[in-house]
Amino acid sequence: MATRYCGLDFGTSNSTLALSADGRSFLCPLEGDSVLLPSAVFYDAEDHSVRFGRDAIRNYVEGVEGRLLRALKSVLGSTLIEETTLIQRKRVAMRAIIGMFIRHLKRTAEAHLAAIGMPGPLDSVVLGRPVHFVDGDEEADRRAEAELVAAAKAEGFRHVETQLEPIAAALAYEQSLDREELSLIVDLGGGTSDFVIARLSPERARQTDRAADILGRSGVHIGGTDFDRRLSIDKVMPYLGYDVLLGEKRLPMPQHLFHDLATWHKIPFLYTAQNLHYLRSIVLTADRPELLRRLIDVLAHRNGHRIAGEVEAAKIALSDAARVSFALPLEPPVAVDMTRADVDRAVHDDTTRLIAAIARCTAAASVKPEQIQSVFLTGGSTAIPAVRDRILGHLPNARAVPGDMFGSVGLGLAIDAQRRFG
């Protein structure tokens, strides 16, 4: 039987799975020919099926009755992992939904292996993990890793190890080198941003133990979904009553409703009878009741993920365009205009925190920013010009190396799996 292992990058926004079979590592197609699968699950209320990735998002956007869940990774290490959400009149635990998504990845990979003449179970995996699942809480961080490992084992992986995602990206980048470099690996994901400073070279790549080559690391719980949330609060939520004042005393609207509506993994928990009852009870006390009626419409028709998807798509488009527009799913529709300057403002404070995390990384490695020779950029948020430019500006002598924006971590995890299990 062919020897094969895998690396699984279960991401906040997207996931990849790379296979290491008979000495070579490659990304596995997960949806058609695409090796990238959006981390989305849709429960179809019409035929009671479960859909994943783009298929899940497409059915939701096309108006199929059902429930969409995204950013599942964000609940790891939080109290939300213990929560249940109502799906097809049943309460389903969030950890069960995560397990179902991992099971789908595993079965898809096994089907691909069978199709290329390597049938059999896939039972050894290296899971990617951020430097910090949870900032400033070591116990929650350990709990998050344990939950991820337990989910993989529950779905049939017998041998499960973990590796830091930026180290996995470093292992992938190293395959392309022809000389030694002092590199900063920048992995800006959907939910977390991670940094590693490492000495990389073709000679070092042949070594099994790389601990001495990892000079410093740091991470912060900031990612693309945080940029989405800030952009949504700034540019969308005012159309839904964010600035509405209530009653004779003109008290502000509860802000948590809008922040949750702008946060991918919290959206499903807003769709409750209690929230709708509350909003309907206060709508006539608002100074602009028509805005609250829009918010009621969004929650009643469960359009939160649709709005979040439009904001995310606008952010991505503004990496190349100067201005984009989209319509909020209301009757009548409401047009929203966004510019690259809006994105720049939305990411500014969080990017300052990213630079601080890089400074902690260089301090841990006992190197100065000007000593870094190359910056390997992976993760979708590295495409945002304001973020990328500030990072590169902090490292004046470093050569920017754009990696596979979404596949580098998964491929590096498979390379690590080959070393661990081979």
UniProtKB/TrEMBL annotation:
This is Hsp70 family protein. Belongs to the heat shock protein 70 family. It holds the Pfam family HSP70. Keywords: ATP-binding, Nucleotide-binding. CDD domains: ASKHA_NBD_HSP70_YegD-like. The lineage of its organism: Bacteria, Pseudomonadati, Pseudomonadota, Alphaproteobacteria, Rhodospirillales. It comes from the Bacteria. PANTHER family: HEAT SHOCK PROTEIN 70KDA.
